[in-house]
Amino acid sequence: MVIYTVTSYELSFDRFHPDNERIFRVMGDVTENTGEKIHFAKIPFAVLNTGRNNLSGVEKIAGIIPYRSKISIPDGDKPATQFESTIGGTNFITTAITDPHYFDIFKYEWLAGNASTALEAPYAVVLTEKKARQYFGTGPLDNMIGKQVIYDDSLKVNVSGIIKDWNKNSDLAFTDFISLATLQSSFLKNNISQNSWSQGDMSTWTFAKLRTGTSSGHVNNQMAELVKNHADPQVKLSLRLEPLSAIHFNGDIIENAIRTAHLPALYSLMGIALFILTLGIINFINLSTAQSIQRAKEVGVRKVLGSKRSGLVFQFLTESFLMVLFSALLATVMVRPVLIGFRSFIPSGISIRLFEPATILFLVLVIIITTFLAGLYPAKVLSSFPPAINLKGPGTERGSENWLFRKALIVFQFAVSLVFIVGSMVIATQLRYTREKDLGFTADAIITLQTSASDSLSKIGVLAQKIREIPGVNKVALQWLSPMTENSRGMKLKFKSSDLKEFGVTQVAGNEDYIPLYQIKLLAGRNLTKSDSVNEFVINEKLSELMGNQSPEDAIGKTLYWNDKPYPVVGVAADFHTKSLHDPITPLCIINRPNRESAIAIKLASKGSGGGMVKTMLSQIEKVWKEIYPAADFNYRFYDQSLALLYEKDQQTATLVNTSMAISIFISCMGLFGLALFTVKRRAKEISIRKILGASVSNIATMLSWDFIALIIIALLIASPLAWYFMNQWLQGFAYRIHMSGWVFLFAGMTAIFIALVTVSFQSIKAAIANPVTNLRSE
Fold first, then answer.
1. Do the Cβ atoms of 89 and 152 come closer than 8 Å?
2. In the chain, what is the straight-line distance between the N-terminal and C-terminal CA atoms, in Å?
3. Torsions phi, psi for 256 (to 5 deg)
4. pLDDT tens digits along 524-569
5. CB neighbour class for 508 (10 Å; exposed up to 12, middle 13-18, buried from 19)
6. Where are the alpha helices (DSSP H) in 510-647?
7. Among 62, 219, 440, 723, which is disulfide-ready with 422 (CB 3.0 to 4.6 Å)?
8. How far is the C-alpha of 316 from the C-alpha of 378, rounded, in Å?
């Protein structure tokens, strides 16, 4: 039920739009000279008008340009109320410059204003109802038409329409829709190029709604011609359509603001749910058939009194149905606590909706299918006993012909459990490796603050200087991004100005304090100097080797060309990671690029800094922040926590596998307990005879336990190649990874054997100390 709730939530995003199967996002793919392909959700604005005039088979095409800004709502003589244009805790920008055709593709309910003309005029904005209430409070929505909203202190627009918020899951969470005409009539036209096809001018989310019967491949071919006729061939840009339903699962995008789900992880969840239910069904079969001996006389009496086999089968299936039904009812009660317990791994907004038709249908199907699969075989076994044999007394029961089948079920259960045990150990070891590996820089006691990219350099510099003066602050650096991040930046360089071949490298931008703060090791040359523009490079070993240098010292003084301008190499740094360990270390340049360095990295004094002192320093930093940015929220993040987020999906995988392992082992032990119970019942007379002939309790317990150890060994032989294959596939996703060794499988096997011995020991010892007379009384 929990897995159904999570997967149905993730799969529901943007499925509610009319004709959603005909709506696509236009994606931009750029191929680097290294062969790497990078993906952009934003494409050049020029594609919009060119595509509208040249693409056949497209019913509507519309663009929407996210616009990060400070928002002010004037209130007469009182100070203006300030708002942010992003969703708290995310990078999603809710304000956007909007093509009127956007509302032809995505349908909204209009609560105020004229839908056909609301976005025709410049300096007009359409708001969602919740946003309008946030800006202007309660009151009739019609009275809000014409009210003023100010963006970035100078862009004054008037409300021309109000639309109802969508009440279903969507990744398109825009709330402020500024008319596209405003772009052409205001200072915004200087910030967004409307005619360029350059990679540097990718600004616009573009959506297309195809005509009925038009294939995406047909439009893709036309867009290839547009790129060929308009874009610079050196850019190596390609355009393609991405289905609207795929947006929520495409995390491989530069500067992606959307929270994406991992589709393979959802499929894995579904598979795990199926495995766990299968293990439960196997258990039910084992436990039910183990009880067949106890119900043999009941079946015999019923048959003597005239019951038919079909009636007995129906009776036992009804018993199974009731048990499954009560299990399902108990499960629905447990879903909410489980969701709360795993809330750190589950997106906000997920809740169980029991009375939705889809949920009810799912529950009914699960109950019926589980009842049939779990109950049919035990019902057939229980109803098959001949009454004459059953009524003769204990010791005459059948069931040996089903013994191999029951063993096979236990082997299957433990094979699944062993796969999870091995997977859990491998994932834990790899994640420990990612935490302990030397990354080439330090991340301890560093916090980062992000200011607005539109703020003046002097304002950011004043903030940095004030923070430097706070006691306990060790170093402060201005930066674009920290050394290791999910969205690293690239740049294209040449060895010579006349060299036509450019090569891509990672760009790391920070001021002269950047390298000392992160303790990046210099192998040759010196650090960057203070500057108001880019005038020199520090490169890493990889780039030095790519330049053909035999040693780091050989690179000092050589020249690299960026945008055909020469820059001297003044230092060579030891290689360090700029992406997670999923990716290899790449050639990179460290440059001082003040116009992009809008973030601040702060190194706190780590020695002698207890929790109280850190809190004091943070409160002092917040106080300084409020002096410079009184209307902006103070949001900071410890850098080592940011690094941990790079492996968030891997950590979620670990939690998933660990939980599945615990559940599968628990279920397997229940099945093993049932098999042990059945074994003891079946071999009761044999055990009694052995005791009479002198066998000790330890001899009998060992004899019974050995059968189960043999099953675990068989399960290990089956599980080992499967576990090795699946975990090797998972490890292939890391450029830097551990190597699986035999001890992992050996330890998993020993763990399973120990668990099995603990599980069966109770029944084995109980059988070994039982009075043999009781079992032999009927002979």
1. no
2. 51
3. -75, 120
4. 999 999 988 899 999 999 999 988 899 999 999 999 999 889 999 9
5. buried
6. 514-518, 541-546, 552-555, 611-628, 639-645
7. 723
8. 8
pLDDT digits (tens, 9 = 90+) for 89-117: 677 899 999 999 999 999 999 999 998 89
How many Cβ atoms from other residues are within 10 Å of residue 748's Cβ? Answer: 24
Q: Say which residues have a Cβ less than 8 Å from residue 139's Cβ, sequence separation at least 6.
A: none
Looking at residue 395, its pLDDT comes to 43
- Specify the 3-state DSSP secondary structure of 335: helix
pLDDT at 172 over 90: yes
Which residues touch 481 (CB under 8 Å, ≥6 apart)?
A: 487, 488, 489, 508, 509, 599
Instruction: Give the CA distances from residue 513 to residues 250, 277, 474, 507, 519, in Å, rounded to whole numbers and listed in that order.
Output: 36, 57, 11, 17, 10
Q: Are 607 and 59 in contact (CB under 8 A)?
A: no
Highest mean pLDDT among 89-98, 131-140, 387-396, 452-461: 131-140
CA distance linking residue 277 with residue 283, whole number of Å: 10
**766 or 531: whose pLDDT is higher?**
531
Q: What would the mean pLDDT of 698-706 be, rounded to a whole number?
A: 81
pLDDT over 90 for what percent of the chain?
37
Q: What's the one-letter identity of residue 250?
A: N
DSSP string, 214-233: --HHHHHHHHHHHHHHHS-G
With beta carbons less than 8 A apart as the criterion, state whether 27 and 39 touch: yes
Q: Are strands 95-98 and 446-450 parallel, antiparallel or unpaired?
A: unpaired
Residue with tokens 């947006």: 247
Give the distance, in angstroms, between the CA of residue 84 and the centroid of all CA atoms in the same chain.
26
Residue 404, token pair as written in the block: 């191999």
Pick the residue with more confidence: 699 or 15? 15
**Under 8 Å between Cβ of 597 and 510:** yes
**Amino acid in position 519:** Q
Tokens for 86, please give them: 């992003």
Q: What CA–CA distances, in Å, run from 10 to 6, 94, 332?
A: 6, 21, 20
Condensed to tens digits (0 to 9), the pLDDT of residues 436-463 reads 889 999 888 899 988 865 556 778 888 8
Instruction: Pick the closest to residue 201 from 170, 237, 171 (CA basis).
Output: 237
CA distance 732 to 582: 9
Nearest Cα neighbor of 561 from 525, 533, 534, 522 is 534
Of the given ranges (146-150, 335-339, 677-681), which has the lowest mean pLDDT?
A: 677-681
Taking the C-alpha atoms of residue 263 and residue 267, their distance in angstroms, rounded to an integer, is 6
Q: Tell me which residue of 92, 42, 26, 50 sits closest to 202, measured CA to CA.
A: 42
